[in-house]
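Priority: low. Protein: Cof-like hydrolase. Input follows.
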Amino acid sequence: MEKKYIFIDVDGTLFEHGYDVPKSAIKAIKEARKNGHKVFLCTGRNKASIQKFLPIGFDGFICSAGSYIETDNHILIDESMNEKTILELTEIAKRYHIYYSLETTHITYQQPEITQLFALGTTYDQLNSEMARIIENRKDEMKAKDLEDYQGEPIHKFVFIGKSKEGVKLLKDYCKERLRFILFDEIISNDMINGEINDFTVSKGLGIQKILDYYHVPLEATIGFGDSMNDLEMIKTVHIGIVMENGSEKLKRYADTITESPLNNGIHNEFVRQGLIKA
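Result:
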């Protein structure tokens, strides 16, 4: 079979929060690579927060929604946001009581209020996959620190959460034609809205193209797996875009096919259906 280049999102795709990565997914990834295919993580997470998944075995990773890319022991992209842009985004967020975090390559700086919002009575099934990741990061000081500890490191991504629709609209208007603004379509508990912002010059889709250019392979060789709206550019870019059953209903409109949820062995089952591994 022709070698395929497979791109897999992490949160809500490789695994569901509150559970480990399914053994079936680990087995499928290992077998696919043994069969000559290349498998990459393609995630909104920064490099620091994917470390526990790397022992599974991957050929590279697209992190921070395309702002940081590594493969074959080479850094292909390491692009940070403009300092003035970050300052102006934080000013809008503060004015409208929108909480935010700043993601660097090695650490995420978060306002403690983000955790406090969900401290009581909130379970993972009440959160979209990206919000669950933010809450999870707060539990590990190696992944996240308080915003007051930020010392000016380069920022890959600005992540926000709040109730103010007016404030979110101002953030979106500010980004118009300059920055990539992603709003997750699911309203999470307490009527909160969350999303992320990074440079318009980066995305998961552009990151995939960068890897294809590096390996000199055509787009027709690509397959992508995702679940949330920050996977949209990936799903639209790859030759075969696959969305998880537990994923965003809006994202499913762009899918070539829907596979089962991670807990129902969606990665493994679709690898079999795509002919990447044997049943």
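The CA atoms of residues 225 and 242 lie 5 Å apart. The longest helix spans residues 83-95.
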